[in-house]
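Sequence in, structure out.
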Amino acid sequence: MIHEMTDETIMADASRLHTEAATRHAVLDVQGLGKHVPLPDGDLTILDDVGFRIGHGDTVAIVGASGSGKSTLLSLLAGLDVPSAGTVTLDGERISDMDEDGRARVRGDKVGFVFQSFQLLPSLTALENVMLPLELRGDADVDGPARQILEKVGLGQRLGHYPRQLSGGEQQRVALARAFVTRPSLLFADEPTGNLDTHTGQAIIDLLFALNADAGTTLILVTHDDHLAERCQRRLRLDAGRLQGDAV
């Protein structure tokens, strides 16, 4: 039996196909995301019905006041935590439905991190810190790529130095090298200049965006710095756990 194709049917089919195509081409697809914490007098809502899509190679800033849910959102997007509601699909894999082992595998294969506090292991040299994610992933060649990316960030002469022997800016350069050495699909940066002076912070941000453009990585940046946010293609603004704006 052949059904008559009405204008409404055609539009509905077109909308469905558009949505499916957008989901396929999105490196990050977030739908109805919520995070609630049970308290004795009721649930505390940290995030409520957050949804958006981010395409491959996009640069996106997550902005908002302290306590608006930025860091919680980043943790959910990266699979470091699980949502109370909704879904997160990262590069085609629904990480919100996975157990910790599954999420750890996706992070190792597809995600890089840069933190405000650098998060370098003090007992490892700069070279060893950058080699570590390659070793954890089981790569055959870990020394070559680590040396190459450290040269690129200007630390080719500091390979054998420990974090305590490096300045704050140099430690963050090591952290950038470690984040990009696996050539991730998606890089999360949480206040990457928060512990640096203005001049050093600007140099680190210039390097971050240069490395990101060279690698074609999708960058999601949590920041309270409007000037830094303006360097991104999009800004997702959170207010009391709800998405209030998406400016291009």
